[in-house]
Amino acid sequence: MRRRLIFAFLLFGAIVLAVLWLFQTVWLDDIYRSLKLRDLEKCAAELNAAASDFSGDSYTELNDAAGAIASKSGVCISVYEINDIGAAKTGVKIIEQHMNAFCFIHNIGSSKLLNTLYKKAAAEGGEVLEYVSLSSIFSPGNNRDGSGENVILVKLVESEGSELLMLFNTELIPLDSTVSTIRAQLIYISVILLVLAVVLAVVLSNRMSKPIREMSVEASKLALGDYNVNFDGGNCTEIDNLSAALNKAAYELSRLDKMQKDLIANVSHDLRTPLTMIAGYTEAMRDLPGEATPENMQIVIDETNRLTSLVNDMLEVSRYQGGTQKLNITRFNLTDVIRTTIERYAKLREHDGYTITFEECGDAIVDADERRLLQVMYNLVGNAVNYAGEDKTVIIRQTVSDGYVTLEVIDHGIGIPEDQLPLVWERYYKVNDFHKRANIGTGLGLSIVKNILLLHGAEFGVKSRVGEGSNFWFRLRLSDESEVPAETKE
Ligand code: ADP
């Protein structure tokens, strides 16, 4: 990381220097000249526009416009009105705006020079550029070097029947000494940039890599199964986020590890108990005369069923986790299906003193997987029975509103502590660690319920208070044909 950062910083410095070098030394003169020429062109265009609007007898207005243009751009301006005197042309100066006392056009004294400029401009289609040096004898076009170089834009325009010769003059200051100063400066800048790049790269790479190095030490511990790790944040949001994600992953891994251990303990307990019973009863029936009673046989059958449902639950959960479980969606009357199933279930439970009631309010036609929804109901009602309170009452309430059917399974039992509520939907989760075989399942039921409801895109949840009971609910969309109003059915 350090080497890469140093390289990146050096590369950046080199690019900055190269750009500076090109603009400040190699191209400086060209850029300077082209800017100056652009200034002249701009002044010429502006004065030309003013001249074309001009319609007075005196040139005062035009002179004012030229003054404004000259003072804005620092360009000297002279304008001559051209007259014919015999075959030769001569000019009368009508405008004079000078920003620089040493400009060339100040010093055009002879009409011969003016005549030469006029002819050149006329020959070039009305516009020509001249480079002259104050120190040399005026000879248009032959001198681009030497100090005090002036550049003159000569422009010939027609205005109100008269011919105007416009001269725009700017001075080109030699840049040689500036360029050599900048070159010397650039050498110092290069050295400073180089040192800064290396120092910055070292400091930054240290700051950035320190938390990453620490994190990789912790990650190696985690890989070896030590969940007691802590990923410290760095100095930037990305590393903070990464360490938060790793801390969460470590926490989840440790939780999963605990769950797995619990599962092995629970499952082996759940498997061992019925197996011991089956082995015990069948041995007794084999060895002891008179033990092969229907009651004993029933115990063996019950224990076998318990084993089957345990194995089935585990298989089902693993299928949901693998994402291979598909729904078989059909349109059916959910109310009818729940009513008949609950009636049957309630009858079975009546012997143990349970009261299971179904409060309905209208038919609910849904597009769903009938078998899976019944499985949801069986799991929720089974739990409500298992954890029901003294009153041994379970209420199944169905309400229909706004195109949705809501089913609630309510008991008045032990309830669930608030902090455990979100966890009950997780695999193998049990609120109490103690194992009460008579009514505690595998901890898979609600995980199966959650997966089925998620596949249906249904909302679901639980409200519960310790000692007062629980209310497990889910909400399903009614099918489009489900138009039976709630009030008409009762
Ligand atoms: P289990 O087979 O253990 O009932 P579930 O996944 O169905 O597994 O439920 C997970 C845990 O949620 C249960 O062990 C129990 O602690 C709690 N639970 C579920 N339903 C109820 C309820 N109606 N009342 C109180 N606790 C409940």
Characterization of this structure:
This protein is α+β, with helices and mostly antiparallel strands. It is built from ten helices and twelve strands. It has helices spanning 2-26, 28-53, 60-73, 111-123, 176-223, 237-287, 294-322, 334-350, 370-386, 445-456; strands at 76-85, 88-97, 127-133, 149-159, 162-172, 330-333, 355-359, 365-368, 393-401, 404-411, 459-465, 469-477. The strands form three sheets. A five-stranded antiparallel beta sheet has the order 2-1-5-4-3. It has a five-stranded mixed beta sheet with strand order 7-9-10-12-11, with helices on one face. Strand 1 (76-85) and strand 2 form a beta hairpin. Helix 9 packs antiparallel against helix 10. The longest helix is centred in the middle third of the chain and has 51 residues, at 237-287. It is elongated, with a radius of gyration of 49 Å. Adenosine-5'-diphosphate binds next to helix 9 and helix 10.
What low-confidence regions span 5 or more consecutive residues with pLDDT below 50?
137-146, 434-439, 485-490
Order of helices and strands: HHHEEHEEEHHHEHEEHEEHEE
Distance between the termini: 74 Å
How many helices does DSSP assign? 10
**What is the number of beta strands?**
12
What is the helix fraction of residues, given as a range?
Answer: 40-55%
Portion in strands? 15-25%
Assembly annotation: single chain
Query: Are any ligands bound, and if so which?
Result: adenosine-5'-diphosphate
